[in-house]
Amino acid sequence: MTILKATNLKKIYGMGLTEVTALNDASLEVKSGEFVAIMGPSGSGKSTLLHLLGGLDVPTSGKIDLAGNSITDLSDKKLTLIRREKIGFIFQFFNLLPTLSVEENIALPLVIAGIHQSVYEERLSKLIETVGLTDRKKHRPDELSGGEQQRVAIARAFIAEPKIVLADEPTGNLDTKTGREILSLLKDSSKELGHTVLMVTHEPAAAAYSERVIFLRDGSIVRSLKLGGENDTETIISNLKELED
Amino acid sequence: MRIRKTRTALTTIGIILGVAVILGISITNISTVAAFTDMIDSITGKSDFTINSVSESFDEKTLDEVDKISGVEVAAPGISRGSRLTKKKEKPDVRIIGIDPSIDRKVRDYSIANGEFLKSDEGRSIIIVEEFAKENKIKVGDKLELATDKGFSVFSVIGLLDKTGVGRFQNGSAIFMPLKTAQNEFNLDNRLTFIDVISTKDDVEQTIKKTKKILGGNFVVERPAKRVEAMEESLKALQIGLSFFSAVALFVGGFLIFNTLSMVVIERTKELGLLRSIGASRSQLATLILTEALIIGFIGSVIGLIAGLLLARGLIYIMSETIQSNISTFEVPLRGLIASIFVGIVISVIASLQPALTASRIPPLMAIRTNRGESSSSKNYLLLISSLLIIVVGVATSYRPQIFGYLPGSTLSQAGAFLLLLGVALLTPFLVKPFSSLFSRPFLIFARSEGRLAS
């Protein structure tokens, strides 16, 4: 079942002489439960695509359907509700609130939604256990390592049981070993919880954790590569080289 | 707020000051007027008007003249002088009232609790207030030494008064003695300092007019109520001055809140963007900032109330010294309490509206980007014009208050100064850039990098 469908997305920044086309006629489909990576050279429009799909920005033209709802022509109020209920975000720089504890940061989307603690208490402890932070749940972000902070961000993205989780370079600010741990966690959690994950990355090794890689060049989707073989990383690297040539 | 402790504390102080001054003034005014009214009532008793001289004392022959005026029913002469009990440990201040015992009871209420009233207008007998006697361990029959113009004189306490009627005068620290004795002790032979008059009831105003005419310009003839009014009038000037101070304090408090919250919004753009990206609505972000302002406003107002009560104590003490009378009343007006809390909170909320609006406009993408969009130039232009207009009105009002005709000049001058302050504050953002480029030039010559950073 298709959970996300983008059709002919176009995003132009600036006007006149300063006009820059960040995304040009991009169309894609993501199936429910799929783990998809988006790759491409710098400036190819990866992050722009992710922001549009996540309702963080609006396209200049084109259409996005998320779980049966068109999100391109919604009011700010309705788009806010879509982000709250249907989308989870994981950022490169974790973006945790420094004054809140681990569990408070994770529960934040539910607090914003006005859900009472008694309703989500069990789900929260289970999720904290899944990301391996039970001992650290009362700690503040500045008392955690980078990897631990990203675990908090992953749990926060999953807590509201969204239809899709969008991750923007989730390992970009972590060392290789921690990055691998985080990707395994992301993959396992999405499988365990049955969530769809769309991840932007420029690292072939990170993209190799996904089931499919979408390649972007100059704002357009140029290739979609199914993974599952033995040498996924090498395949991704060779595809990227082809695109850069 | 937890992170920016000093800034939040300073912001709260602004509100505390404003609220404290508003409440302090309110309590002081009401208490002073109440005390003054009580004092006037207690000493003037049933009299319809009082005669005083513009000089310190006047000839007692004036009493005969007053007695002859048609419409005067009773004219009670007296003298009033400050003194102290010299033999007592604390040497308490007292007020000596010399009265004619045969007449004075017609004008004033003397309620004897113990002993007896003065018998003649001579002799070394005195009566004092029972409560004061207890405080100073004095009883009927005791000898008291008082400081007078003759030196230290000894008197016998023959009676104690209830703290009602004249017993309330000067908070019970008045000492009544025969007129002739008082005149002698204070070198005021054949002199008086006041005459209290009971007039034929229907004809008080007429009698006052006649008395004024007969006595001439060297005498002040007025109803007791007039003195309260005069007191209220003189308090008004003080009230206006303090109100201006309070307005400035609140303005500064409001400005600090505006500044603090604006900084909070800028510093937390990324956090606020994150909240938007994970589903917080615009109104939730605005509420977040408004709540912060409400907390500051509420805490500031509550501490301000406590500070206001303390301030009122201090102001009442100063006022007691100024009017040379003990103000024992401490009336906390409910209206003043509500008004000061209300003003503190309202100012905080008003000051936070713009930052709250800015916060609500932060797009969710700010969770990723950290640069902030400049506000539109048309809005800046509007602010520039508004601030210049406020300055012009402020200057006009300060220097030419008469252009507004019937309104009191002093109030307008202060309002003008306040507007001037507001205008200059609003203009400051436009002056920062040109001034910084002007003043950074010398630094650019001597310290290029540091100069550029400073500019």
Lay out the secondary structure.
The complex is a heterodimer of chains A (245) and B (455).
Chain A: E1 2-13, E2 20-31, E3 35-39, H1 46-53, E4 61-66, E5 69-70, H2 76-86, E6 87-90, H3 102-112, H4 117-130, H5 146-159, E7 164-168, H6 176-193, E8 196-200, H7 204-207, E9 212-217, E10 220-226, H8 232-244
Parallel strand pairs in A: 3-8, 3-9, 6-7, 7-8
Antiparallel strand pairs in A: 1-2, 1-4, 4-5, 9-10
Helix pairs in contact in A: 3-4, 3-5, 4-5, 5-6
Chain B: H1 5-44, E1 49-53, E2 58-59, H2 61-68, E3 72-84, E4 93-99, H3 101-107, E5 112-115, E6 125-129, H4 130-135, E7 143-148, E8 151-161, E9 174-178, H5 179-185, E10 191-192, E11 194-199, H6 204-215, E12 219-222, H7 224-267, H8 269-277, H9 282-323, H10 334-360, H11 377-399, H12 409-446, H13 448-454
Parallel strand pairs in B: 4-9, 6-8
Antiparallel strand pairs in B: 1-11, 1-12, 2-10, 3-4, 3-11, 5-8, 6-9, 7-8
Strand order of the largest sheet of chain A: 6-7-8-3-9-10
- Sheet with most strands of chain A: 6 strands, mixed
What assembly state would you assign to the polypeptide chains in this entry? heterodimer
Secondary structure tally, helices of chain B: 13
The assigned structural class of chain B equals alpha+beta
Write down the secondary-structure element order of chain A. Answer: EEEHEEHEHHHEHEHEEH
Radius of gyration of chain B: 32 Å
Termini distance of chain A?
35 Å
- Strand percentage of chain B, roughly? 15-25%
How many helical elements of chain A? 8
Mean pLDDT of chain B: 80
Largest Cβ-defined interface: A-B, 27 and 19 residues
Approximately how much beta-strand content do the residues of chain A carry?
25-35%
Main sheet specs of chain B: 10 strands, mixed
Helix content of chain A: 25-40%
Mean pLDDT of chain A: 90
Number of strands of chain B: 12
What structural class is derived from the secondary structure elements of chain A? alpha/beta
